[in-house]
Amino acid sequence: MSHMMNPLATPEQLYQRRSFSALPIELQDAIFFSTQCLTQAAGLLLQLPQSVTAQANVLLARYWLEEPMMFHEFSDISAASVYLTAKLSPYPRSPRDLALVYNYLLSPSSTLFHPLATLSDDSPPPPPPPTNIPNDYYLPEHIYNSFHTRMLNCESRILYALSFDTHVSLPHSLAITYLQALDFLNTSKSTISKRTLAYLNTSLLSPQMLYLTSQPNALAVAAIYNAAKDVGAKMPECEWWEVFDVDREELGFLVVGMRSVDGWGRKMREDMERMKGETESGRRGGMIRRRDVEGELRRRGLSVGNGHAGGSEEPVDMEAEMARRMDEKMAEIEASAS
Amino acid sequence: MTGKGKSRWADSAEDAALEAQVKKEKEEKKRIKAEKARKAETEKKRREAEAAAAAAQRQHQQQQTGDDDDDDDANGPPAKRRRLSPDRDAPPPPPPLQATPTASSNDNSKLLRFEGGRFGKCRSVENYDKLNDIEEGAYGWVARAREIETGKVVALKRLKIDPKDRSGLPVTGLREIQILKDCSHRNIVKLKEVVVGDDTSKIDNIFIVLEFLEHDLKSILEDMPEPFLASEVKTLLLQLCSGIAYLHLHYILHRDLKTSNLLLNNRGQLKIADFGMARYVPDPPPPKLTQLVVTLWYRAPELLLGAARYGPEIDMWSVGCIFGELLTREPLLQGKNEVDELTKIFELCGLPTDDSWPGFRRLPNARSLRLPSSSSSSSSTPNPTSALIRARFPLLTTAGVSLLSSLLSLNPSRRPTASEMLEHEYFRQDPKPKQEAMFPTFPSKAGQERRRKRETPNAPQRNQKAPEGGIDFSSLGGIFGAAREREERGGGFSLRMV
Ligand SMILES: Nc1ncnc2c1ncn2[C@@H]1O[C@H](COP(=O)(O)OP(=O)(O)OP(=O)(O)O)[C@@H](O)[C@H]1O
Ligand SMILES: [Mg+2]
């Protein structure tokens, strides 16, 4: 039983994502980052333990190596991953809980992805923080029903794409165990553990998908290494990572990878805000949606395919698009009828 | 609804949380910057450079192609280029079915990353030809099938899905799959893959592909003209027990052990199947677990008494029941309902006392028991259970009686653990356990004809809710009759409503 192991992405899977997808890679990255942030925010509002939300992050990342990002609305697939992991955990949440939380997070009242003041010098001044208008996130029954249907659809889609393997080993508790074994004489354990966990959590958001390329023990060691460096802790003289079965090469990758998440996140938010700003009239900021990406693609003269391999050469398929919208409408009607 | 929603997150708690997060992040960024300025940084940079160089080298080794068409800017971490292109020199990846390669396959540390397996889409059930139905249980449908490509015979178990169930795919089925995927032991049925119907636009036909075994123990017991030999019982029990020891070691409770869920192949190998009720349970167990587990005849007394906190001991009770069944070919405790089951248990094992089972009176349903107070208890013999068991199994050796009566301890903490049981002297005494290969073969029903549908009464229903306040002892007709009968026969106790 591989309890502390995860299934990892194959080189083929990683390669495919970057080379064959119809979506330019930086759009994929922006979608990845914002959807993972949304997932985290939902986990918070649903009062789920971080371990559950983190598993949802990992399942979603795996799913997106199997199916195109444009298959489903980003918030729907995020909701499904949270719903699924919560269902399998001791903290199940009802579909209605999920609907309420996502409805709120996507509403103009939510502070999620509200433009930041300090993004860059040439960006327009940030709008005032959103005011809370309960009407913004009122959830009519038919909207709930169609969300519910879409979420269950996404749930089975995720399971199908992952062969029903929902196993996720997280590095968090391992890292704490390792820290206890290590002796950082000159620093407090709690400072360093906090920092370690912060590295592990931000790595979940990163389109580098470190959780899909490294095993938990390596992630834990790299996070500890970075944290120890950050707080100026004196590390053991020896090559201590080898005790935890991590070799220097892998450690090097992860150390650098984890350190770059911060800068990436900032760049990603800028990209997203630009996209939102240009597509949605009136409001800036907020969670990116499929239609934002479609708009961006059109502006760039790219097609709005479904993200299938090789789809980028085809002209916009209006008919398919219409069909998709009709399907959504039907699902909505069906759901409200049942 | 909106009112509730409003109070739930419109308040500042959430905003504060997000704000705090942003603030924390900012602070952390600042701190990183400050740190970077530090002198100690030079050392780190050296190390990182070293590591990065090594990394670059490895990457170079791993990817043959230049693969430099993507323009990583300075922001882009070097790490993200890692393993971007398929390694054409690498051995072909294992077929997607091998989600969990065997532990033995890894002496090469370079292959470490495959240890956890890989992920990918389900294949279609059309890769299999159905041969015959095996069984239609309370929960699913099982058939014998052949994989077209390899000719291998497998068992297909269909996950029962209620399309009207608006909570999505059943959590029991998902757990069953996950647990089977996680397990790798010779006495646990092996899951090969999960396949789906051809129409993947709607995932509503899900099949678990299992290794095929010719028999289940229940069918064999039903058809045997003579009971198993003592040596055969030992072999079966040892195998059962080593499978359970593996499960419990990994915090898995099976929660539905019974003879129809134990499979046997023609080489005398026993495997535990049907993980539809199984789940991971940490130690110590969480305070609230569903009581609706384990088919009635194999259900431990603490469950019948309504304990919400229980552990691996409930599986060991079932092992005791199975032990008895192997000896006589008849289920040991065939209660008609919960009360009757408890009655039969007390008949076989004696009554619990405050000494033998401290605290049992505090269990929810114990209040409806009327037992002689411990002071006036007549059952003060050292171990009344052994005496009663010996009477019921006159042919069983002393060691066998001691094992069986310890498994059937009313007090869960007195039951042996699976690994303790493996060490029991019963298995070391003559007759020795029979070699698996020497096992007799039986005509396989599963391999030939369609089996009749059969029912074990009161099998736990998946997704069923526990009745409020536990079992309603009052609504069960015949309790008083049954109890009185028992009293007349000198059972010395009765069940009644408080
Ligand atoms: N791998 C297998 N090889 C051969 N027969 C099998 C296999 N798995 C299951 N069976 C047969 O199918 C029966 C039902 O399987 P299983 O117990 O897994 O499903 P179930 O629907 O949960 O049953 P129930 O609800 O009646 O307990 C078993 O008793 C056994 O006879
Ligand atoms: Mg069964």
Could you outline the blueprint of secondary structure elements for this entry?
The complex is a heterodimer of chains A (338) and B (498).
Chain A: H1 11-20, H2 25-45, H3 50-66, H4 74-88, H5 95-105, H6 141-161, H7 172-181, H8 189-205, H9 210-213, H10 216-230, H11 248-279, H12 290-299, H13 318-337
Chain B: H1 2-10, H2 12-37, H3 41-62, E1 123-124, E2 128-136, E3 141-147, E4 153-158, H4 171-182, E5 191-196, E6 206-211, E7 215-216, H5 217-223, H6 230-249, E8 252-253, E9 262-264, E10 270-272, E11 279-280, H7 301-304, H8 313-328, H9 338-349, E12 369-370, H10 384-392, H11 398-407, H12 418-422, H13 479-488, E13 494-495
Parallel strand pairs in B: 1-5
Antiparallel strand pairs in B: 2-3, 3-4, 4-6, 5-6, 7-9, 8-11, 9-10, 12-13
Helix pairs in contact in B: 6-8, 8-11, 10-11
The complex binds adenosine-5'-triphosphate and magnesium ion.
Structural notes for this entry:
The complex is a heterodimer of chains A (338) and B (498). Chain A is 60% helix and 0% strand. Chain A has helices at 11-20, 25-45, 50-66, 74-88, 95-105, 141-161, 172-181, 189-205, 210-213, 216-230, 248-279, 290-299, 318-337. In chain A, α3 (50-66) packs across α4, α6 (141-161) packs across α13 and α8 crosses α10 (216-230). The longest helix of chain A is centred in the last third of the chain and has 32 residues, at 248-279. Chain B contains 13 helices and 13 strands. Chain B has helices at residues 2-10, 12-37, 41-62, 171-182, 217-223, 230-249, 301-304, 313-328, 338-349, 384-392, 398-407, 418-422, 479-488, and strands at 123-124, 128-136, 141-147, 153-158, 191-196, 206-211, 215-216, 252-253, 262-264, 270-272, 279-280, 369-370, 494-495. Chain B has a 6-stranded mixed β-sheet, covered by helices on one side. A 3-stranded antiparallel β-sheet of chain B has the order 7-9-10. A two-stranded antiparallel sheet of chain B has the order 8-11. In chain B, α10 (384-392) packs across α11. Chains A and B meet through α1, α2, α3, α4 and α5 of A and α1, α2, α3, α4 and β5 of B. The structure holds adenosine-5'-triphosphate and magnesium ion.
